[in-house]
Design goal:
The protein is an alpha+beta fold. The chain contains 3 helices and 5 strands, in the order H-E-H-H-E-E-E-E. The radius of gyration is 16 Å and the shape is elongated. It binds zinc ion. The site of zinc ion has 8 residues, from loops.
Length: about 110
């Protein structure tokens, strides 16, 4: 019989709390990663990381992380097929760097 390795004993509480907070905020409002980072007091990069986990976690409660794709402000190109949650650097069509950030909500 195999013994399951125990989870490392790094305190996860803070992470869990922030995740719960992000989930709560996103059930009420639609926000970009930058706005979430301001709400939760963590970096945008951390927000994107949490969102990746949240996307999977909310499925258990039959909820869904809704992503409004990033959009080029110049030519209107929408980054629909993008799997990554962070903001794209530039538009593949017109190479503009004026990108409307993706927005997130939970429904
Ligand atoms: Zn463009």
């Amino acid at each position: 019989m195999k013994i399951k390795p125990k989870e490392p004993s790094i305190p996860q509480e803070k992470h869990e709390t922030i995740r719960q907070e992000i989930i709560f905020v996103l059930t009420e409002r639609t926000l970009s990663a930058r706005e979430i980072s301001a709400e939760a007091g963590i970096s945008e990069k951390e927000v994107v990381d949490h969102l990746g986990h949240i996307r999977i976690a909310v499925r258990k409660s039959r909820e869904r992380l809704k992503i409004i794709p990033a959009e080029c402000k110049k030519c209107g190109f929408r980054f629909k097929k993008r799997e990554r949650l962070n903001k794209p650097g530039k538009c593949p069509i017109c190479r503009s760097q004026q990108i409307q950030e993706p927005l997130f909500s939970i429904s």
